[in-house]
Design goal:
524 residues, mainly alpha, flat, coiled coil, cell projection, cilium
């Protein structure tokens, strides 16, 4: 849109001059177009235009990054605000729950204290009664214990004799059981060994017979006598081994008979011991009855003592529960204080984030002001025209334009110094002109606002294209690819694919391939 406006303005100015000056102005304009242009001046203007376009693109990218950062900061602030609200609500709800729990615990504590006092009085009365009964029972049992002391002495002697006899009996039983086990193990081992020896001998005989048969088939008739002799010798050896095993079996049978005789003697001794045990058992039954009576009385006394001890333990347990409830109440109070401190820290953190957001907004406002001033300054520079009417290059105009560009550079540098945290890092290089990549398309948001509308009115130009002449009609790029890009980035990508040519009309057609920066071209 900007080139068309300037082109329209350039078209209106010749009409005014035509009305005032007539053919004189047209002749001066044609003469100025025919004047040769210095190549260094043209290159200087081209470099200035490219530099300004690069700076404008960098500022636009910085603005896009700032917009994204501001959006992220706003989202983080909203998230923090929501988190703060949720935390405050949770803490309030938790505090109310704790207060309710403390009230319930206080009520329970009061009820437990009342119950404790009542139970304490009842237990004291019961304890006094139990002590009185215990004293009476103690006196009665003391007299009975004196009477039964003599009886226990006699029973103690009988018990000692019985223990001696039982120990002897147990030793003999253990010895008999041990001998039986050893005998059984010995017989079992002998039987197992004999079976294993028989199997081994049978296998060896079969193996050797097979070996002899194999050798018999292989060797010649001259070797048959040696083989037969060797087989006979082996047969004799096996016969001797079998005889030795038979003798060993007979010896084991004799030992078995001896062990059986020993077992008979031990069984007779066991019968005698059992008879004596029965006699002792009959004598001990009377003593056991007396012991049971004494045991029953002692058990009753122990039960009374245990009941008193249980009541004492129950009282101490109630006191411990009371102390535990007091500790829990104190812990809940401490937790409430900690939650209050945490809430204060969250509020301080929220205030700090609010201050940082305010600072970021101030920096953004200052950068927006600097960009707006730079935009206005660039528009003024692009709209400047030389005042000379003879078509010569105005040196004062060039110096003034250069001074304005330097002033613009100083102003933008001061803005970057004021906001160093948003400046481009030293390792980050400016992106070249051209179509952006897919990652950049998806990450750059759609820039809106009055500042972007002002920036959208400025169009970057190709070398030699000042926007004074309408451009040739061309096919625009796909809008779906440029939908998510800012205006300056879209124009930069569009410029890399389309190189417009300067068209003049009338007598200026022979200057079709040249551009005169800083000189207004009059077209009909």
């Amino acid at each position: 849109m900007a080139p068309k406006k300037k082109a329209g303005k350039g078209a209106k100015e010749p009409e005014v001059k035509k009305k005032k000056g007539g053919k004189k102005d047209l002749s001066l304009a044609y003469k100025s177009m025919e004047m040769p242009v210095n190549e260094e001046t043209r290159e200087f203007y081209h470099i200035q235009i490219r530099d300004l376009e690069d700076r404008l693109a960098r500022y636009q990218r910085k603005w896009d990054e700032m917009a994204v950062q501001e959006k992220l900061s706003r989202q983080e602030f909203e998230q923090l605000a929501n988190n703060k609200k949720e935390i405050v609500a949770f803490l309030k709800r938790t505090l109310n729950q704790r207060v309710d729990e403390i009230a319930d615990l206080n009520e329970q504590l009061q009820s437990l204290q009342l119950a404790k006092e009542m139970e304490k009085d009842a237990f004291e009365a019961q304890l006094a009664q139990v002590r009185h009964e215990f004293q009476e029972t103690k006196d009665q049992l003391t007299t009975e214990n004196i009477i039964l002391g003599g009886k226990l002495a006699a029973l103690e002697e009988f018990r000692l004799q019985k223990e001696e006899l039982m120990e002897k009996f147990m030793l003999m039983e253990d010895q008999l059981r041990k001998q039986e086990g050893e005998y059984k193990d010995y017989v079992h081992n002998l039987e197992k060994k004999s079976v294993l020896d028989k199997d081994r001998l049978r296998k060896e005989i079969i193996q050797r017979v097979n070996m002899v048969a194999t050798e018999f088939r292989k060797v010649a008739t001259s070797q048959m006598w040696d083989t037969t002799k060797r087989a006979i010798l082996e047969n004799n050896t096996v016969t001797l081994q079998l005889a030795q095993i038979s003798q060993r079996g007979l010896q084991l049978l004799r030992e078995n008979e001896q062990l059986r005789g020993t077992q008979g003697k031990l069984s007779q001794e066991l019968e005698l011991l059992e008879d004596s045990q029965k006699v002792m058992a009959r004598h001990s039954r009377g003593h056991q009855k007396i012991i049971l009576m004494l045991t029953e009385k002692c058990r009753e006394q122990q039960q009374g003592t245990a009941e008193a001890e249980r009541l004492r333990l129950l009282l101490s347990q109630v006191e411990q529960n009371l102390l535990q409830l007091q500790k829990d109440n104190q812990a809940l109070r401490t937790q409430r204080d900690q939650l209050n401190l945490q809430l204060e820290r969250q509020q301080a953190e929220t205030q700090r984030l609010q201050q940082e957001l305010t600072k970021e907004q101030k920096v953004r406002v200052s950068l927006e002001t600097a960009l707006a001033q730079a935009t206005s300054f660039l528009r003024d520079i692009m709209q400047m025209q030389p005042e000379g009417e003879d078509g010569d290059l105005d040196t004062m105009f060039q110096l003034q334009r250069k001074e304005m560009l330097q002033h613009l550079l100083v102003m933008l540098s001061s803005a970057m110094v004021l906001s160093p945290q948003l400046a481009v890092s030293p390792g980050q290089e400016p992106q070249p002109w051209g179509p952006p990549e897919e990652g950049q398309r998806s990450n750059q948001p759609l820039a809106t606002g009055s500042l972007l509308q002002q920036l959208s009115s400025i169009t970057p130009y190709q070398p030699g294209d000042l926007g004074l002449v309408p451009r040739q009609i061309h096919i625009p790029p796909n809008p779906e690819d440029l939908r998510l890009l800012s205006h300056t980035t879209r124009v930069g990508g569009f410029r890399a694919h389309s190189i417009p040519q300067i068209h003049t009309s009338g007598s200026a057609k022979k200057f079709k391939k040249f551009s005169l920066p800083g000189i207004s071209l009059l077209s009909k």
